[in-house]
Design brief:
Shape: elongated
Radius of gyration: 21 Å
Order of helices and strands: HEEEHEEHEEEEEEHHHHH
Distance between the termini: 53 Å
Number of domains: 3
Helix content: 25-40%
Bound molecules: zinc ion
Number of helices: 8
């Protein structure tokens, strides 16, 4: 039987390596044996993932490396999940339900395999891949292809956190280190340059600040291997943000991909990326103008 370390020991393991932690609500069995979030809401939509306000009223802001505070928190709440603040370590969060596996596969095919680094399995079928940001560079949070990398790939950086091993996921499985990628054997590698570039000059919101000549250049010159996914995302986002009809934007990006990407991405991949950006743009508009009934 595998011995699971206490939450106190597990939390201190992170602080000994420069991390800061805070308590999240955990998952416990109710009277009927069903796993529920310790916040007590039967229909909690963020079960096992949100800050335990009773102990850390300011959530992530309360993240600390002080041993006595951590001992107190995880002794009072021995089933609390562990929130690990990100920023000094940046986490690529692969969510297979939103196409993260395929996105990562496509990016690795373009850029080569990711460096050997520590990885955790999330208990929900996803994966957390840990990187160090380059010296002096701040990597912020981003979600999917909205200012981030690609569908199903979120980034947890400055101002974010992850649920860390051995926390218990709502599925009933624990977050655990991936075999051969335990931090003891796999020190956190530096984030590969192509990923840094995609995140520091992302599509999404940041593209409002781009000047027109950059767009003309992208459209006229296209992109090679390394930047095709990012190029398709940016161009689709640029058109949709300007209220070009999604069907028209889709056809234009398909044509651009065939004419200017070297070699072109598959039409299916372009369709998937444009569709995903269109859904995000729709959600952005609904958030901005109130949802339509
Ligand atoms: Zn909850």
């Amino acid at each position: 039987m595998i011995e699971v370390p206490s939450r106190v020991d597990a939390a201190l393991y992170f602080t000994e390596r420069g991390g800061r932690v805070f308590p999240l609500h955990g998952m416990c069995a109710d009277d009927g044996g069903r796993l529920v979030c310790t916040c007590g809401k039967a229909d909690c939509r963020d079960a096992g993932k949100h800050p335990m306000a009773k102990l850390a009223p300011r959530g992530l802001t309360n993240a600390t490396n002080h041993e006595h505070i951590i001992r107190h928190w995880f002794t009072v709440a021995p089933f609390a999940n562990i929130g690990l603040a990100t920023g000094r370590v940046v986490v690529l969060d692969v969510d297979p339900r939103h196409g993260g596996d395929e996105s990562l596969q496509a990016l690795e095919a373009e850029h080569g395999p990711l460096p050997h680094t520590c990885r955790a399995l999330t208990g929900g079928g996803g994966e957390h891949i840990l990187f160090r940001p380059p010296d002096g560079l701040e990597i912020r949070n981003s979600a999917g292809d909205h200012g981030g990398l690609a569908p199903g790939l979120d980034i947890r950086g400055t101002g974010g956190y992850i649920v860390a091993p051995p926390s218990l996921h709502a599925s009933g499985r624990s977050y655990e280190w991936s075999v051969d990628h335990h931090p003891d054997e796999a020190p956190t590698a530096e984030m590969p340059p192509w990923m840094v570039q995609a995140l520091v000059h992302p599509g999404g919101d940041a593209q409002r600040a781009r000047n027109p000549s950059e767009w003309r250049q992208l459209v006229a010159q296209g992109v090679a291997d390394g930047g095709r996914n990012v190029g398709v995302s940016r161009l689709a986002g640029h058109l949709l943000r300007r209220y070009v009809d999604p069907g028209v934007a889709h056809e234009l990006v398909q044509a651009w991909n065939l004419a200017r990407c070297l070699p072109p991405l598959s039409p299916e991949e372009v369709t998937k990326t444009v569709g995903s950006i269109a859904r995000k743009e729709l959600r952005r508009r609904e958030a901005q103008h109130g949802s339509r009934s």
